[in-house]
Amino acid sequence: MSIKRLTKKTEFYVAIILIAFCLLVQVRSGQFFTPNNIVDLLRSLTIPMMFAVGEMMVLISGGVDCSFPAIASLSMYFVTTKMDGMFSSPIPYFLVAMLLGLCMGAVNGFIVAKYRFPAMIVTLGASSLWIGVMQGILGSSEYPLTSALYRLGEAKILTGTNAQTGFSSNLPVHFGFAVVLVLIGWFILNKTMLGRGIYAIGGDEVAAARAGFNVFGTRMFIFCFSGAMAGFIGVCRASMMMTVNPNNMIGMEMDVIAACVLGGVSLVGGKGSVLGAVLGTALMTLVANSLILLGIPTVWSRVFTGLIIIIGTGVSAVQEKQRKNTLHVAVSEE
Amino acid sequence: MMSKDNSAKKPALSFLDNSSARMIALFVLVFVVCSLLKGGKFLNADNFLAMFRQFPEYGLLAIGIGMALIIGGIDLSAVYLANLSSIVAGLFLHHFYQGTGDGGTGLVLLSFVVALIVGAAGGILNGVLISGLGIPAMLATLGTQSLYWGLGVVLTGGSTLSGFPKVLGTMLNKKFGLFPVTLFIFLIAALITGIIVQRTKHGREMKMYGTNNRATLYAGLNNFKIVVTTHMIGGILAALAGIIMWGRYSSAKADTGSTYTMQAILIAVLGGVSPNGGSGSVTGIVLAVLIIQMISSVLNMYTFIPTACRQIVWGGLLLVVMILNFYLDQKKKNRH
Amino acid sequence: MSENIIKVTQVKKYFGGVKALDGVDLVIKKGEVHCLAGENGCGKSTIINVISGFYTPDSGTIEIDGKEYSKLTTQQAIEAGVQVIYQDLSVFPNLTVRENLAITMEKSSERKFISRKRYDEIAKQALSTIDFQIDLDEYVENLTVADKQLIAISRALLYDAKLIIMDEPTTAITQKEVKNLFEVIRRLQKKGISVLFVSHKLDEVFEIADHFTIFRSGHNVYSGPTKELTQALFTHYMTGRDIEEEPFEYNEKDGAKTVLEVKNLSLKDGFKDCSFSIREGEILGITGLLGSGRTELAETIFGVHKADSGQIFLNGQEVHFNNVRDAMAAGIGYVPPERNVMGLFMDQSISDNISVTRWDDCRKGIMMDQSEIDTLVDHWVGELSIKIGNASDTMRTLSGGNAQKCVLAKWLALDLKVLILNGPTVGVDIGAKYDIYNLTKKLADRGLAVIIISDDIREVLLNCNRVLIMRRGHLVDEKQTKGLDEETLSRLSVEY
Fold first, then answer.
1. CATH, range C4-239
2. Interface pTM (ipTM) of the complex?
3. S-S: B254 plus which of A124, A257, B152, C445, CB 3.0-4.6 Å?
């Protein structure tokens, strides 16, 4: 890829800002490039990064999914409480949660694909529905984590220890899952006809249908995939936290969507890359988690999240506006 | 030439084709069903008073968010702007109020003005981000949601703000017979915004903008003004909702009523606002508010149903109403 | 084997009770360039959909290359060598040229995975069929319409096409690009590939089409060699009536004031050093290729863009427009080129679409006065003989011609001094087209200064008394239309 083309990509700029921010924190605190800080960041990145992969696919197809935290919470809560202690292996928990998630995703997919309603409103409605089921019918409350998943939560890839302070942090195996999921997402989107179909539909739905892509089926797939992933991620989250907290994922959808958009995924569909989504998520996570190293009290974290979203999307919106306003007449010199 | 004769005789369509007629029918239906289900428990003064106390706050938010939907956008920040308004007003009171609970009527009224100003400013910021910078409404108000929420947290240190003059609570909890003062606030606000949306030039421009915001430019409409004014009104409505919530508990918090966003969108769509923008009315939204309140009250009377189950009803209802509208509209189109 | 690539006999197709095709015949020989013409709604697109297997006809037969199909499917049509290039071209703006060329082929051969190598091979093969040179890594959204069209053509040729159907391929491309397109078509013809051209402009396809078929409201009305057609006959067959074409005569009155004067107007990447003036009652044409700066010039006068330098005078007074509202207040109206995108609010009522520019005057206090609006709308609907059902119906219920009249009505409702029409009859059927022509002439007679921007040379010659030629951002020439012929003008507007 030529340098010129590289500099046209949003990913390129997000990466630069990301690096600059890391350096800033390092200069200010001296604590950024320490093993435990890096491990902590990767740990906090795990869940949002996985969510971003599913969300990005939905965004590329021209929709949006606001319901994945609800799906994740409900699937996770169901398997961890109703199937508590039933299995000694964590795998059945994941599988059942994924199946539940898939069914809930299918509801979204069906309504969005069949009726062509705005996906945001449909998924907000579905979100309310699932949260209602969880809180109202299952009566959600904190619950001890089933042992199979607890043991999984204890498994770690590595431990980062800060030589100076002696603090150490563990990188859970879930980060490995996240990496695998990102790779799967990348593979589907770039190497399969299905993935290219997602781009095609996001670019021009009618043309995609004429080219033989099954628009309805692809939409269904995307929402089902996003749902199944949400189920998986919900269980991951519980086992990483080593406790069942049904409510602490609610509200994440907005941050994930914002992270994707920051990474160059288009809200109107057709554009975006897995790399961009991961970088966008990394930037959001980094800023939210590094305020303390910069000496800013944590009560400010929401304000900063808001500002990043506004500034990040504002910059690209202004660029887009300028691009649209630029004229293209080749005026000759006479 | 043929328009004059034709406009007089409307085709004899089923009443369900007209969205406000559809709303009135639904309203009557829900009212009758509720009355039949709960009889005297529903049709009783205490229940009506309770209902009148409950809906103004989210009703105001629904009108504001509905207006954002009409111009083809959305407002995810309204609830947090409502809280921020009352927090700033609360801090204003704390700063100037010297008494120990008595008096301070003038100051309280002044603090309401402060809240309204904060609401208007927050709404204007939303509008500027959307129309001035060109950020899609969903992202812009997502950003300001975080921002207003965050500012609320920073200003309160994450806790609940209380210790206000007693007059704050008494003033906003006053009632005239069956009718609490907050109901009047709601009705007056609904009347004014109703006139704006349904009867003024701004209202028509909102719908034009919601349909095609490029054609508005070529027709000489002022896009920036349309968006900023609409969001400013939305912000003021949010501040009013904030004041009501503040008065209800005599306390202000950064994340009160966080489920209202979803509920407000549901109400707006139920009330006939097109989720794609370009159409909708305040009358429809007000009817939808009443419908939702009746359902909510009746659900409350079944004590074995947990409150959280209402969310199932809201979400389910939103989806069902959209699908139903889809089929009714399709039927209408086929007849043409 | 047959000498005909396609033979459609007595095909009927009904939608509900509406007859879209009422027994039409269409025969296309191998290696022939055939033009199918007709006004909007005559059944052109229905027949395309029948031939491509998208619609099943209610009766009649379809024969492709001698083989009769009772129920043609899209797949069978493709296998038989029928390829349709739709007006929207069906390309993916967000994908690269390479992927656009390869993806449909790969999809139809039911590949599940992507191979860059195969993509590359397919793309190169596709481009080589018409000797088209382009960067494979470029995103299609950055290309011109003509390039997108060539991509669609080369993609279609991958399927071993025997018949390529092109739906109005010349509407959005410049004359130079049309020439290039015709070159490509001739090359296809040499290879024995037939082309069905759907168009409603005779002059454009006259030189390329061997044979003409004209439809009118679901019937064949003409089928024969192109050379037997004249413009008058063509119009007659298209519309079913004879329309006199009377060129516009400018009655130069003594003391006719200069209404608009533009002096040395320049805008970066738009145009440079443009000066012209127009007097009361004149109809001034501005012609030039797509991308010559003509739209930018018009939109600067209308206040959409702000000029970098130069002056605009209205009735002798210098004016400065910061936005469209200023220009409107000064009495300038503008009918934009893309009607549905820039000119109309498709989901709003006809009434609101016509009255939108006058809302300031249709008020009682702060409230809108609907009866005032109704009176206004009724007046203009009558004045322009716009065919509508009910003024409260949405804009979608109207045909292109009537919709364009609504755009005009919106401007006429204002007290204008200058009216700029940019491509006023694109996608407008012939009947409405002449209505619009007559209307502009009438307006000019009343003293309005009208500017028509168009690349339809005929339109300019017929309606304007004076024409400016724009090339690469400069106004390069000015001619009186009297005595000017089409060839000269068209030669002037293309680059040497």
1. 3.40.50.300
2. 0.87
3. B152
